[in-house]
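User: Structure tokens for both sequences below?

Assistant:
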Amino acid sequence: MAKKAARASAGPSTAATLALAKAGIPFVPHVYEHDAAATDFGAEAARELGVEPARVFKTLMVETDAGFGIGILSVRDQLDVKALAGELGAKRAAMADKAVAERKSGYVVGGISPIGQKTRLPTVLDEAAREFGTIFVSGGRRGFDLEIAPGDLLRAVDGRVSRIRRG
């Protein structure tokens, strides 16, 4: 079966799109056919959307000694957990359990959007996002991304920018 090409459309209504619309924050929805066998969701999104992986950002939840938090970084990069912990005012951090991340965010792994999460958590966007006019983040479902300016994303999540990637 041939895959549908990535396309911009009205996209599905998700907690992320509703939150952005309510706040009056501009974004462009992009829908693509998700391959159920795919496990590298970020690489799949970059490929299907036809954009460089550096512009596709993943949302990662961590559990720290100060509570939970969110890190947003390019799918090409690895999270520096210690750097994110420091930005969240904690000494230690570890990746949150997938079930916990799904419960707190209200989204499924592979479709966790940083926007419109069930539980609003402190959020840090990696500074590499500033290299681009727009970046892509999950829209709240597998196969659905939002193109958004980094500054608008920060407004939407009440986040801040710092280097949270390794290297």
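Moving on to the next sequence.
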Amino acid sequence: MDLVYNLLVALHLLGMAAVVGGWIAVRSGRTVIAPIVWGARAQLVTGLALVGIASAIKDDDHTVNNTKIAVKLVIALVVLAAAEIGAARGRKGKDTGNLLDVAGGAAVVNVLVAAIW
């Protein structure tokens, strides 16, 4: 089970890299690109899987702070919503407004919550 957990952690980090890296790469273009959307999706799915596994294992290495997880889930949903809406607007040729910055900034906030809390 540790192998699966560690693979999910790696995928979770790659998702974060896609969102934050994509945000930094295209920030001047103001367009939400596919890696940002797929990274946000990966973050949500792998995050939920990690919480499920950590809740099931019940040892000192896999304790779950449900309040922190709830905060991170809400932020992850903001990231995903901003990325999906921004990408959809971009495909239609509409202005994406600040959705790119909302997705990228919220992803950074989520990293800070994970690391500092």
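User: Anything stand out in the second?

Assistant: The mean pLDDT is 94.
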